[in-house]
Write a structure and sequence with these properties.
Length: 104
């Protein structure tokens, strides 16, 4: 049973290329980027307040307050919010929307 050159190349790509890379390439062409906010407590709190009207997958009770965390999504962005010892926010959105989120 022999394979043609085309079948061998396609097999190599399907076996060795992670599908997330295809997703990143698609995001690049539609101008969506990943932004990470970490270490700046003021900026993190401001972004969390602006993202308050979107849907979260978890809520944690921290220092007497219910704080949203986990995956979130709305029409303009998706991402992940992790609150443990520090707040880390990963946002997938277009640049114009990101600038609106971090604006003072």
């Amino acid at each position: 049973m022999g394979f043609s050159f085309k079948e061998m190349i396609m097999g190599y790509f399907f076996y060795n290329i992670n599908p997330i890379y295809l997703f990143y390439c698609l995001m690049y062409y539609i101008k969506i980027k990943q932004y990470t906010i970490c270490g700046d407590k003021e900026l993190s709190n401001r972004v969390i307040k602006r993202l308050a009207d979107i849907y979260y997958t978890q809520v944690r009770h921290i220092n007497g307050k219910d704080t949203p965390c986990g995956f979130f999504f709305n029409k303009k962005c998706i991402g992940f919010l992790d609150i443990k010892y520090t707040t880390i926010i990963f946002i997938y959105t277009k640049q114009a929307n990101y600038i609106k989120l971090i604006k003072v």
